[in-house]
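Recap from last week: sequence in, structure out.
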Amino acid sequence: MFVISDGNTAAVRWARAVRAVRGVPAPVTYALIGLCCLVFLAGPAAGLDPAYGSGDGLLAAQRSYFRRWGVVPADLFQDSAAAALTPATALFVHGSWVHLLGNMLFLYVFGAMTEERMGRVQFTLFYVACGYLALVGYAAANASSAQTLVGASGAISAVLGAFLYLFPRARVTSLFPFLFFLPLRFPAWVVLPFWAALQWLAAGQASQGPGVAYLAHLVGFALGFAYAWARFGAARGRPARPGKGGGGEPVGD
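Predicted structure tokens:
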């Protein structure tokens, strides 16, 4: 678990000042979180709508729902317009409460400052495009799989990659289970590459077909970092300026 907690850098001070001026901080980030939560609560995975039934009936409804709105790698490259849209719809579908809450926590922590640096319109396009490409990349590497893929982690990983480039010195409080959840503070340039390395190792061990979509995480992270480098690299030495406003069970990516 990561929480940004240090305002010593100029970038963090600037982001807080922008939030105070705008009044409503990071509206796109909060809208994405709200939309993902609403989609989840309205779907069968939440288990709250009695219309989906219970027991085997609920499981069947979940499988049908995930297959309709999630990515099925075996179907994605079959020249179907409906299948081509699924990497976009899958970004807003989650397979469980843990899947949803984990993704939304990371989006909440790292999305606001990234959005403020990029601007609302640019951040929206960045989020959707990188998330789409991350899911397509995973599907291409597992093209024969009929297992569904849902979740926002590919897009959120892109946010993490962009955050690393834009705010490498921002301090992040990390809770490590193997250290009895002792809160330790590290700069983003230490925490996020460590996270990416873990994803790479996990992807290398996932040799028994699709599981958790670690490859989608890596593709998204790389895309996010590369985009931030290409878009904002020339401005690294200048003060930051506000951006213009403007199947089976699903695989959790």
